[in-house]
User: What shape does this take?
Amino acid sequence: MERMKLLLIIKGDKMLGNFKAVLVGGFLLYSNIAMAKLSVAPQFVLFDKNSPKVQMINVVNSSDEEKTFNVKLLHYRQNVDGTYSAVENEDDKNKFVDNLIFYGPRRFTLGAREAQTIKVQRKPKANVESGEYRSHILFQEAEKEDVAVVSNNPASKGLSFKITALYGVSIPVVVRVGDLFSTASLSNIKLTKKGDSDILNLTINRVGTKSLRGDLSVKYGDVEIGVLKGVNVFLSVDSRNVSIPLNLEKINNESLKGKTLRIEYSLDGKMITHSDFVY
Assistant: This one.
């Protein structure tokens, strides 16, 4: 009997809400964290001159059975649409944190609803070139026998398969060395319909030597009718396309034709760029 292994990785740095699956380097990446068998917080780890040298990640087995998890680093390049592609070698826009951090434990077992704390520590400064370094730390369910048998009938002809679904959550770990900067602008703003829903599409443009991670807000007057939290634009791209669902129920489904919306992109609660859009 042939054996197939399906690795389901929940990208913790993806926008929540719309379910999306992307095949990347043999891994199936899902953006809906609710599909996971474990939860991870925080969903982003940053080491810079202002951050603690030691940070903790809390991992909870949200399933109803005991599970063992492995922890390791993966390397991805972000694409313009916000998805990720696996990369093997470093380049100017994709530098890895492997030699800059300690982390552990790297394997642990949790009962149902139990939690484990993972320690991530920045290594003492050495001769490290100025710049931003990023990898993704993966918390992956360990392989277990006899999970999800597809076909195991000796009388059946041809090949039979056993599929093992391994769940995992990955989050970005970013290390910044030196004095870095970034600026942002918004462009290509347009409105589309998806069924009965209004979707505001736009591009976040990044310039500088470090990535962006912020919140997008769409406002009509003082009312926020659309929001996306934790939107990353990493160094591997100069721009990222984003879609924001609008909740017109907040303004009692008032017609916005000809009205002006304001789109704001904020980092740490401080707006760094905005743009107006006539509906």
Observations:
- The two ends are 58 Å apart (CA to CA).
- The CA atoms of residues 4 and 272 lie 47 Å apart.
- Residues 1-6, 13-35, 146-151 have pLDDT under 50 and may be disordered.
- The chain is about 0% helix and 60% strand.
